[in-house]
Design brief:
It contains five helices and 15 strands. It is an alpha+beta fold. The chain has one domain: Jelly Rolls (Sandwich), CATH 2.60.120. The strands form three sheets. A five-stranded mixed sheet has the order 1-4-12-9-14, with no helix packed on it. The chain has a five-stranded mixed sheet with strand order 3-2-10-11-7, with helices on one face. α4 crosses α5. The longest helix is centred in the middle third of the chain and has 20 residues. The structure holds N-oxalylglycine and fe (iii) ion (FE).
Length: 277
């Protein structure tokens, strides 16, 4: 008999969108922001999982063990939809935060994405909707490609000889988040065999590669209900270390069956970075 049943069951049952590994190779044609949903090949399937409420253990997660961390970090940004303001004020804030959280020698922010869980707003404000498919932003190989895209060849080579990685910082633009919360499966319950390489073809011709995720009952999914605008999640999307350190996680969003009918649509921003040790 276990004594933790009640605690372990706290959460919501929700459907997450997984890849069916028996389907054709997944390729996404990424639309410019505001041009609607990306087009996908590949076979996807919704599976119902228990999404644990991670608030009771919020302080226990670490980037190196779990591949994600939760925290509180106020910001001086007033308008996250103003890309100039985000680059000028938010990027330096986030770089400092990720540097502190990882102990990296250098953090290079390379882009950000604003999302609104409302298709009309998505189009009129030229932002993305929540990510419906659970994924990780890099594969074991594509993070190195991103370093090569960011730096001249010789410098990239030098950087790739040392430990490097990628970390996203996610936050609600306004809180509390009432729809489409971020859902995460940490490093410890995500098996390499669950990951399927998926190509992303960008409007500028670049081809990126991410992991999409096949359902596995061993995965433990969790979320932080009702996130406030001064709460953040750090997501490890890659780590070149192979000594047992968390290298990545899986994440996406889900339709929360407990959302009130008049819930305000989720608005969020995630900043992507490469970290160099
Ligand atoms: C991310 C991401 C999904 C979402 O932060 O990398 O995929 O719906 N977010 O916010
Ligand atoms: Fe992502």
């Amino acid at each position: 008999m276990t004594t933790t049943t009640l605690e372990a069951e706290a959460g919501v049952r929700a459907r997450l969108q997984f890849i069916d590994p028996a389907g054709p190779p997944p390729v996404a044609l990424v639309k410019p922001e505001g041009d609607g949903q990306d087009e996908h090949t590949g076979r996807y399937e919704y599976r119902e999982v228990l999404v644990h409420d991670a608030r009771p253990e919020a302080d226990r997660f670490t980037l190196d063990k779990d591949g994600f961390a939760f925290g509180r970090a106020p910001t001086a940004v007033r308008n996250f939809f103003d890309a100039e303001e985000v680059k000028r004020i938010y990027y330096p804030e986030v770089a400092a935060l990720i540097k502190r959280a990882t102990g990296a020698a250098e953090v290079v922010i390379f882009d950000h994405t604003c999302r609104i869980d409302d298709e009309a707003e998505e189009e009129s404000r030229r932002v993305r909707g929540p990510a419906k498919i659970v994924h990780n932003d890099f594969t074991a190989l594509s993070a190195a490609q991103r370093v090569r895209d960011l730096f001249p060849a010789a410098e990239a080579d030098a950087r790739l000889r040392r430990r490097y990685g990628s970390v996203n910082l996610w936050r609600p633009i306004r809180g509390p988040v009432e729809t489409a919360p971020l859902v995460i499966c940490g490093w410890e319950t995500l098996a390499q065999d669950d990951l399927v390489v998926s190509e992303r073809h960008y409007p500028d011709g670049r081809i990126g590669r991410i992991y999409t995720v096949a359902h596995n009952p061993k995965q433990r999914w969790l979320y932080f209900p009702q996130m406030a605008a001064d709460e953040i999640i750090l997501l490890k999307c890659f780590d070149s270390a192979t000594d047992g350190t968390a290298r990545w996680t899986a994440h996406g969003s889900f339709q929360d069956p407990t959302s009130p009918p008049d819930a305000a649509p989720r608005e969020s921003i995630e900043v992507r970075s490469m970290v160099f040790f």
